[in-house]
């Protein structure tokens, strides 16, 4: 069974996003470390969309879907904002001096590092981001074999 | 998120409790910058910090930039494994001295225990 959330383009929706993700992770017995990494990556994705995807100050819907299958958690995030492929975003310079550091560049770097696979597609005027994380399901951890 | 402050010697100890994310990082930043108007040595105790995203890192970076201008310092202590990973990936482990406990960090900060 999957998770489907329709969220508004407002940072306040992160509370709802986190709560749903938390119960979803619990349901599938995802370990706390992996759940943290998924939680963080999804916040970074969502807050980037809310902050940068729209310039019309109108309400938009952001669709978040998640499922677990064959040891992978797959999250799909869809928005109708400006075209943005995070895979083309340059990595931050992590050794630059303090005065040149910018936290704004770290979100996408965190997503790309914490997730095992990140895919992007622009289709029918929408950004579709796929995040995948290898997980160990509880049934495997406590299996008979 | 809760923020608890205590002055120990010449060190401003700020404990951040709970979650720092895009919904509340501005509150943390405003508090830290207010404290930085009068304080120069900070210890951020993360022992009860459950979660931090890039928005929270931004608040700490802002504090550090202000402290650098007045030869101040900011140390961190009590980072759990997941929080530590966020700091490592972001390159922040090189910006901030990270100590295991508040006590160690206070010693490292050269706290005047008198």
Describe this structure in words.
- The complex is a heterodimer of chains A (145) and B (114).
- Chain A is α+β, with helices and mostly antiparallel strands.
- Chain A is 33% helix and 27% strand.
- In chain A, strands 1-2-3-5-4 form a five-stranded antiparallel sheet, with helices on one face.
- In chain A, a hairpin with a 2-residue loop joins strand 4 and strand 5 (126-134).
- In chain A, helix 1 runs antiparallel to helix 2 (32-52) and helix 2 runs antiparallel to helix 3.
- Chain A starts with a strand and ends with a helix.
- By secondary structure, chain B is of the alpha/beta class.
- In chain B, strands 1, 2, 3, 4, 5 and 6 form a six-stranded mixed sheet that branches.
- In chain B, helix 1 (25-35) runs parallel beside helix 2.
- At the A-B interface, helix 1, helix 2 and helix 3 of A face helix 2 and helix 3 of B.
């Amino acid at each position: 069974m999957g998770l489907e959330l329709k969220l508004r383009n407002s940072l306040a929706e992160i509370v709802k996003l986190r709560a749903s993700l938390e119960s979803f992770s619990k349901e599938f017995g995802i370990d706390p470390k992996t759940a943290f990494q998924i939680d963080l990556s999804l916040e970074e994705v969502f807050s980037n969309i809310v902050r940068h995807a729209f310039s019309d100050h109108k309400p938009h819907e952001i669709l978040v879907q998640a499922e677990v299958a064959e040891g992978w958690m797959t999250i799909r995030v869809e928005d109708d904002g400006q075209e943005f492929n995070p895979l083309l975003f340059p990595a931050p310079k992590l050794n630059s001096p303090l005065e040149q550091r910018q936290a704004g560049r770290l979100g996408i770097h965190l997503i790309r590092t914490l997730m095992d696979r990140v895919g992007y597609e622009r289709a029918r005027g929408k950004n579709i981001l796929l995040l995948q994380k290898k997980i160990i399901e509880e049934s495997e951890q406590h299996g008979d074999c | 998120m809760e923020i608890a402050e205590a002055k120990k010697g010449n060190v401003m100890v700020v404990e951040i409790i709970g979650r720092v994310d895009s919904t509340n990082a501005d509150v943390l930043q405003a508090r830290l910058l207010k404290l930085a108007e009068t304080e120069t040595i900070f210890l951020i105790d993360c022992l009860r910090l459950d979660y931090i995203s890039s928005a929270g890192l931004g608040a700490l970076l802002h504090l550090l930039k202000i402290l650098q201008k007045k030869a101040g310092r900011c140390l961190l202590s009590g980072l759990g494994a997941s929080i530590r990973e966020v700091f490592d990936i972001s390159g922040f482990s090189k910006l901030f001295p990270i100590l295991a406990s508040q006590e160690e960090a206070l010693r490292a900060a050269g706290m005047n225990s008198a």
